[in-house]
Amino acid sequence: MSREFVLSVDQSTQGTKAVLFAKDGSVVAKTARPHDQIVNDLGWVSHDPEQIMTNVLAVCRDVVKRAGVRAGEVRAFGISNQRETCLAWDRETREPLAPAVVWQCGRAKGVCEELAASREGMARRVKELSGLDLSPYFSASKLAWLLRNEPAVREAAERGTLCLGTIDSWLVFKLSEEHAFLTEPSNACRTQLLDLHTGQWSDELCEYFGVPRGALATVVPSDSVFGHTTLGGLFPEAVPICGVLGDSQAALAAQNCLEMGDTKATYGTGSSVMMQTGPEVVESSNGLVSSIAWDFGGQRSYVLEGNLNYTGAVITWLKDQMGLISDPGEVEDVIARANPADRAYFVPAFTGLGAPWWDPEATGMLTGVTRTTGRAETVKACAECIPYQVADVVAALRADSGIEVGELRVDGGPTRNAYLMQMQADVADATVVVSSLAELSAAGAAFVAGRSAGVWEANEIYNRVTRSYYEPQMDDATRTVKVDGWHAAVRQVKAHG
To answer: What is the per-residue pLDDT for 110?
Structure first.
């Protein structure tokens, strides 16, 4: 009996996962490797593109070997990736020209300020075209920074050999036998250089940011055949790369959020809270952004989205920088020992505030500290900032869409913490649905790749996953007091000079 598999890679902020799915949608094997977080004295965050590439090949080799896959059994290869992280490389040498600038990095703030000051209404015009607020969070200003500050990038632009792109286009270029220079709309729209309405690069936006359009990848549908790969000789015959999505949109697909109003939250280093809005762009007046969910077969679908810079990363910070925990799995037990009446709040504005507040100047704050605030209470306050932030985005989604979000489908590491998931249901006033599959970004890319290659028609991965449910239990008065306290803490963070 022949076996068919779909191999998917999720290249995320902290590391790279490979997941192998069988034809029935079950997970056969998975593995992961971290990569270095390069942070300089100015707080700039970078990644090594070659290390990422090496890790992609390594995890694919490891997972295929672990599963005992034979030649010809992998039918399709999919990619999900951290989104706004971007880099520059040379089309001829195929080598990176500088470290990748990570989505968290705020080094391009000056580029945005300069552009906003260049003419009245500029920030508004950028958002009209791209759907995104003018912010160093997105790739366009990062690419402009690379062109201004990295001589090798400028020289490649002058030679006409420069490639500028997000991680998906780097991986496709390096992995494909064709060295295809391609991207797709879920990633391209997050650069702030794509016209949200046409799904193609905007000459006007490229001019504003000083990014040569010829250095950008060709935009194709998300379920295209992007090229063929042997994964560095792992396969004797090349396998099609036929499903690529940004990680948040990949999780949306894996959560089967296909109908208007379907909403999910992905808890990673940061978080993406995303609502499916169908074939029409819904504009936000509450601090959210409009993006493209995907393009399947030439049919675009849109989303409203709020992005939070620091959610799961707060737990990492508690462990690595503060030494308050030795393992993320400790958090729930530590919280259980905290005084429930403690009034501390933590706002994780390490590099400014994301949605729905958008304040790049804000810095983090632990506030409401009293004599009852100790280690357990501090850990509790830091962990609780995750559901509070997500609840604020859910409230903005309700306001912008006019849709009552009754169910929030969630994925990511913090979903294993029952305390946080119950609190999420309580402060968001919505049923929280936790997937038993942690690797939903990889699953979404696998679903698209498998469907493109004819391995399956329905979302067999979603159909096999089990789910647990957290219903709101908090009374309205208690919810109001807690959320008002959180909003007071956010106002303190925003009250900077």
So the answer is: 94
